[in-house]
Specification:
This protein is α+β, with helices and mostly antiparallel strands. The chain is built from 6 helices and 5 strands. α1 packs across α2 and α1 crosses α5.
């Protein structure tokens, strides 16, 4: 048989295609859940099924078991979801330490005068130099060792920066795009 017309082009993969889990930021009485995906840290809207239990902030959901309505913007999520965002992102980083360690073990100079560590709140030039010297060639094995040696809360600092970028996607350099979504 001859094809009847040109084949439809394959659909471009979307950013949510590889996402399997999300965490709840806010479960509203209307049944709308505002959440954030675990892999790419995309803000999403989910419709919960009628009569489902109310999910607390930070609760992990399997995306194949829910009705994902799509992505949303930071300014369009509820005040409750905005308040929970930092804690939930920190929880995601703590539960997936390889993402957090990857940043701290691979971060380098952005310019001749600025290191990537300086993108994090409270890390100045001297602290960044100290962290690079402490890291050495092998890097840190665990988040706990990084926190102890550098006297920081690594997941909290990174979560803080990532939440700033979620709120303002025009921030540059953007660690979400360079580290998480690359």
């Amino acid at each position: 048989m001859q094809p009847r017309g040109p084949a439809a082009p394959a659909a471009e993969p979307g950013p949510l295609d590889e996402e399997t889990h999300a965490r709840v930021l806010d479960h509203q009485p209307s049944g709308m859940i505002q959440g954030i995906t675990e892999k790419g840290l995309y803000l999403i809207r989910i419709r919960s099924s009628a009569g489902s239990t109310t999910h607390l902030p930070g609760t992990a959901l399997e995306l194949e078991n829910v009705n994902v309505l799509g992505m949303t913007r930071h300014r369009d999520i509820s005040v409750m979801a905005q308040a929970e965002l930092h804690g939930v992102v920190k929880g995601i980083l703590s539960d997936n330490p390889e993402v957090c360690l990857s940043f701290y073990n691979r971060a380098g100079n952005l310019t001749l005068k600025m290191h990537a560590f300086q993108l994090l709140d409270g890390i100045g030039k001297s602290k960044a130099i100290s962290m690079v010297e402490t890291r050495g060639r092998t890097g840190w094995e665990t988040i706990a060792s990084l926190d102890e040696v550098c006297q920081i809360d690594a997941a909290d600092l990174l979560a803080n920066r990532l939440c700033q970028e979620i709120a303002d996607p025009h921030m540059t350099p953007n660690l979400l795009d360079l580290l998480i979504r690359a």
